[in-house]
Amino acid sequence: MHNMKRYKNWVRAAMLLLLTTLTTSTVWAADDEYKYVLWLNDGTQKILDFSDKPVMTYADGVVTLKTSGENFTWPLTDLKKLTFMNAANAKVKLSKTKATIEKGKTLTLKATITPSDLPDKSVTWTSSDTKVATVTSAGKVKGVKTGTATITCTSNSTGAKATCEVTVGSVKLDQTEIVVEKTKTKTLTATVYPSTLTDKSVTWSSSDTKIATVSSKGKVKGVKTGTATITCTSNATGLSTTCKVTVGSVKLDQTEVSVEKGKTMTLKATAYPSTLEDKTVTWTSSNTPPAR
Description:
Blueprint: H1 2-19, E1 34-40, E2 45-50, E3 55-59, E4 62-66, E5 71-75, E6 79-85, E7 91-94, E8 98-102, E9 106-108, E10 111-114, E11 123-127, E12 133-135, E13 140-143, E14 147-155, E15 161-173, E16 177-181, E17 185-187, E18 190-193, E19 202-206, E20 212-214, E21 219-222, E22 226-234, E23 240-252, E24 269-272
Parallel strand pairs: 8-15, 16-23
Antiparallel strand pairs: 1-2, 1-6, 3-4, 4-5, 7-10, 9-13, 11-14, 12-13, 14-15, 15-18, 17-21, 19-22, 20-21, 22-23, 23-24
């Protein structure tokens, strides 16, 4: 009697071990409700799908999984491992579901795999269009050209998937450096990529509005001599580009002079701001007599 009790306790312990041992070699679809994976002592594997969660019982050395319409039995001596896995609990979550990067730049996506006790948490990364964006085995995404690609992360043990829509874009200005006089204006034109974006609107800003301001249409106005940076940002992608604006002027030491015929007088010009590398000037006359 004592030995029989010990045998039953061993069987219960063995069944508990079987039920709590996970196998990660099987991939199942998201519509599978309840799946059991049976590993037999002969090295083969059997997979059972149930529409309802079955009840497991053990009697006379036989394991039974039973639902209202299904009934499967196996001798315990034939079983090496028995695993229950609920596909509804198999999930992959990414750190981002949407991302934007520039051509040539990278970002790394992080994947969280559930159930958390899966011994194999490895994943496979793929890109729907490697001409737009590539992805490494570590989830590092690189922008190749403007456009949109879907990065898919798949759990190798469960088959669960998660995706991130990656937009590779840029913002370009027709000029990257301009010079404007005080109180004068120049208009910058922005082009947002990719062209497939529905929202191509941009936001303009100036690093120093005391030197130069910019309107919502990209019109830059000089306020005082100096240098400011105008930034143009895509509202859809968050990507931006800049234009260096120099507000300058040229002053003469005299604004009105009289000179006799045949005589000369020299005017002195000063170019502002003083930070300009090229301070040379060009002189012209509004009325030059023809050469004789």
